[in-house]
Amino acid sequence: MTKTWAKELGRYNIRVNAVAPGFVKTDMVKDMPQEVVSMMKEKSELHDIGDPKDIANAYFFLASEEARFVTGTVLSVDGGLTI
Questions:
Q1: Model pTM?
Q2: Cα(1)–Cα(18) distance, rounded to whole angstroms?
Q3: To which H or E segment does residue 30 belong?
Q4: Is residue 53 pLDDT above 90, yes or no?
Q5: 8-20 burial string, b = 16+ CB within 10 Å, else e?
Q6: Residue 52 included in any domain
Q7: Which long-range contacts (CB under 8 A, 24 or more apart) does 4-13 make?
């Protein structure tokens, strides 16, 4: 969908991107058993769980002028989980 919309809307100078977060420290994760949280950390190449700020920073980048030539991209913010 991201790539299709980027193709359709690019002619109007509209960029379309998506953010695909991995495991993030939220209230839901806080309530999980520690062994489950440890398993989630081990699945990540960085052996950690993301902070909500990590996800927000991806959105800030994509909304910035620095990303003016980025479109049709799914940005994985998952600590290497999907490598």
A1: 0.86
A2: 10
A3: helix 27-30
A4: yes
A5: eeeeeeebbbbbe
A6: yes
A7: 6/71, 6/72, 7/72, 10/71
